[in-house]
Design brief:
Blueprint lengths: L11 E4 L5 E9 L6 H18 L3 E11 L6 H17 L3 E9 L4 E10 L15 E4 L5 H9 L9 H8 L3 H10 L3 E4 L4 H13 L2 E5 L9 H6 L5 H10 L3 E2 L6 H8 L7 E5 L4 H10 L5 E7 L6 E4 L1
Parallel strand pairs: 3-4, 8-12, 9-12
Antiparallel strand pairs: 1-2, 2-5, 3-5, 6-10, 6-11, 7-10, 8-11
Helix pairs in contact: 1-2, 5-10, 6-8, 8-9
């Protein structure tokens, strides 16, 4: 068999043989919280998320570091790397090295590699009309971290969001593989609006979003009401709004949540109706949050229909 690339996934996937495909992804960003250890944990969980979205098992990670060595103490970098290593080890993988450069602002992330059985992996193109959509983490991290940077909120105020951002999507991925789902994507920088519409387009279907059922972290909507919407969320809303139906009748704060650029968000899973009960039961048993947020409809490829 000739090795080949496999499209329509959140990570780069290269088939090695009938039973193995190599999965790779990379992500890094500036601090979203003040505590360096927690920042390292969040960055690592975020980088690993693309592997979990396709059902891959992480194997190795390479650190990517930019750090102002003349401005910040080296202990800060040590704590960042320790936080990242903790999440990598929790994923069952190893930190195999990395690369660092001097920069004016700290940046950290990972290049991650894993394996998946191409016969069992989950892509973004398998949605079928009638599938139900489930989300495994609340939304609002962009709003809350913007408020944190603006010193409107403290890390204690957003502790539930921090716990969510550090949580690996490992258990959710294991459940979706065991249940057998139609499609999956993870919700990160393009927000729910972007990742859901991209999955709909890849599958050639539309998606009905239960806009009032979208889960939000505590105080996220309050921050939206104060206008603390990050620039990335504005870009998401501007770019993907042409794909929305029904937005003119929605609460503007709900649209802010829909567009919010997430860090280390949850998985958005499409599952057949007959498997809904077992998916909910197994996610709950694995201590994974589970929220029903929409359903797949036929036609209107790539469009989101907002239902209030």
């Amino acid at each position: 068999m000739i090795s080949q690339e496999i499209p329509f996934a959140d990570a780069a996937i290269y088939r090695l043989n009938d039973s193995e495909a190599l999965v790779q992804s990379v992500d890094f960003f500036t601090p979203v919280v003040d505590d360096p250890y927690t920042y390292g944990q969040i960055a690592a969980a975020n980088a690993l998320s693309d592997l979990y979205a396709v059902g891959a098992r992480p194997l190795t990670a390479l650190n990517l570091v930019s750090f102002p060595v003349d401005c910040l103490e080296s202990d800060i970098l040590v704590k960042i790397l320790q936080g990242g290593a903790e999440r990598v080890h929790a994923a069952g993988a190893v930190v195999a090295g990395g690369h660092s450069i001097e920069d004016d602002e700290p940046k950290y992330g990972l290049s991650v590699t894993g394996l998946v059985d191409p016969r069992k992996m989950v892509t973004t193109c398998g949605c079928q009309p009638g599938d139900q959509l489930y989300l495994t983490k609340p939304l609002g991290t962009g709003l809350l971290t913007t408020a944190l940077r603006g010193e409107i909120l403290t890390e204690t105020d957003i502790s539930d969001a921090i716990i969510g951002m550090t949580m690996l999507n490992k258990a959710a991925a294991e459940v979706m593989l065991a249940v057998g789902v139609s499609a999956c994507t993870d919700i990160t920088g393009f927000g729910f609006i972007g990742h859901a519409s991209e999955m709909a387009e890849a599958s050639g279907v539309g998606i009905k979003v239960f806009i009032n059922d979208l889960p939000a972290y505590s105080q996220a909507l309050e921050m939206a009401e104060m206008g603390l919407v990050p620039a990335g969320s504005h870009r998401n809303r501007d770019f993907y709004s042409p794909r929305l139906n029904g937005h003119e009748n929605c609460d503007p704060l709900s649209l802010d949540l829909l567009s919010d650029a997430q860090t280390s968000g949850g998985l958005l899973i499409a599952v057949a109706k007959e498997k809904v009960d077992v998916l909910e039961e197994q996610l709950t048993a694995a201590a994974v949050p589970v929220y029903r947020v929409g359903e797949v409809i036929s036609g209107a490829s790539g469009r989101l229909f907002l239902a209030t």
